[in-house]
Specification:
alpha+beta
Length: 426
């Protein structure tokens, strides 16, 4: 079996072409049927008229040649026969006496179409008609007359020319009316298809189909626009839901700060940019002091309140371009870029000083806590995200071992220190 052609390979006619073709076929078919009917009616009418006329001619000939037949004068009979036949539509004529003897005969001189004219005459009028010659009721002979088809042929040619002219005029009229109808009917459909194609291509559900003059097409446009309204609302809702899900995936649900995954991704990009521009970056590793004690003694609600308050106070000491994230538990990280060591130390001191004010708890009580900060600089204390985070973590561990609520700047000697034990200090 041959494979069926795909949709892209099948050539389909346009709706405009189908409308044009249908209108032309209907118009031409109607004109052809009307022309055929008129031609048939005309031929039948002409045949009846020709037969009646031929009977009148034959009767006139009997009156004219009666005397010549009575006196048996062939010359007079031929002259009388010719006198009428030349002026009338007669192809042939003959006069016979009572004994059947041919007395006179007439035959029209044929032209180039004599064969066609004769066959047309025979087809419409038969082989001719005979009319008896009577005198006081006595049979003297008869006249035989065959009709001439020249005028019939001219009529047929004129009728055919009229039919073809009607076909041509009807085709032009149908073409004009088709264009007018296409503009009124297919115009709104073209605009609807154009909007649908643009929406599919650009995903712009804000586009709308303009009103149409035809009731059904206008209702279709309104229904399509209503569907676009629903799709637009659905898309906005979906985008909002995606934004919420993306935010939830990259942010901490309690403090609303970025989480570890978001922070590490931003840290990698910032370090690449800083290395390319030769800038210095500071990373702070922040740990909340006594958080486990607060959480165990005062409850998880108090611990959550402490974390939210700590996050807000850290954020309040930073610049707009700086980033603070919750890495997990009571650990926070701050990314400062670009910045020097002195400015990083100053910001760390501001963060520590912000914790001097007691933190209000949900039950109305207050609690004091502090923050211990380790500071690492790029590229001095690490040339990559993991190394820099490790240096800041070790610096925070060193500060906490010395005195809680202080900061410490990483030193090259600290890079080889053992990893801190979270159960040992908090």
């Amino acid at each position: 079996m041959k494979p069926q052609p795909s949709g892209a390979q099948v050539r389909r006619p346009s709706l405009r072409r189908v409308f044009y073709r249908a209108n032309l076929l209907v118009a031409l078919g109607a004109v052809c049927m009307a022309g055929l009917a008129v031609t048939v009616v005309g031929l039948l009418t002409l045949r009846a008229y020709a037969e009646h006329n031929l009977h009148l001619i034959a009767r006139s000939m009997t009156y004219t040649v009666e005397a010549a037949v009575v006196f048996d004068d062939p010359v007079a009979a031929e002259e009388a026969l010719r006198a009428i036949a030349v002026e009338e539509e007669v192809a042939e004529a003959a006069v016979h006496d009572a004994r059947g003897r041919l007395l006179a005969v007439y035959q029209r001189v044929g032209g180039p179409m004599v064969g066609v004219e004769r066959r047309l005459s025979v087809w419409l009028l038969g082989d001719g008609i005979s009319q008896p010659i009577l005198r006081d009721g006595r049979y003297l002979g008869e006249v035989w007359v065959a009709g001439y088809g020249g005028n019939l042929l001219l009529y047929l040619l004129a009728a055919l020319a009229g039919v073809f002219l009607g076909l041509a005029l009807s085709a032009l009229g149908a073409l004009y009316l088709s264009r007018h109808m296409v503009a009124r009917v297919l115009g709104p459909l073209d605009r609807l298809a154009s909007v649908a194609h643009a929406i599919r291509r650009d995903r712009d559900f804000a586009q709308r189909v303009p009103p149409a003059h035809i009731v059904e097409l206008n209702e279709l446009s309104e229904d399509f626009n209503a569907l676009l309204d629903e799709l637009n609302a659905w898309q906005v809702h979906l985008e909002q839901e995606n934004a919420v899900l993306a935010h939830q995936a990259s942010h901490d649900s309690l403090t609303r700060l970025p989480n570890r995954a978001f922070f590490e991704g931003r840290l990698s990009r910032v370090l690449r940019d800083a290395a390319a521009r030769g800038e210095q970056v500071a990373l702070m590793f922040i740990d909340s002091d006594r958080f486990k004690e607060i959480n165990d003694k005062l409850g998880h609600a108090a611990g959550d309140a402490v974390l939210v308050n700590v996050a807000a106070r850290i954020r309040g000491q930073l610049r707009e371009s700086d980033l603070v994230a919750r890495l997990g538990g009571d650990e926070f990280a701050v990314l400062l870029a670009p910045i020097g060591a002195e400015d990083a130390v100053r910001i760390a001191e501001d963060i520590i000083a912000s914790m001097e004010v007691a933190i209000p708890l949900p039950d109305g009580s207050q609690v004091h806590t502090s923050l211990t900060i380790g500071i690492a600089l790029f590229p001095e204390h690490g040339d990559g995200p993991e190394a820099l985070l490790h240096s800041a973590d070790l610096a925070m561990y060193h500060a906490k071992r010395q005195q809680r609520g202080t900061w410490h700047l990483a030193q090259p000697s600290l890079l080889s220190a053992p990893t801190r034990d979270m159960g040992e200090v908090s």
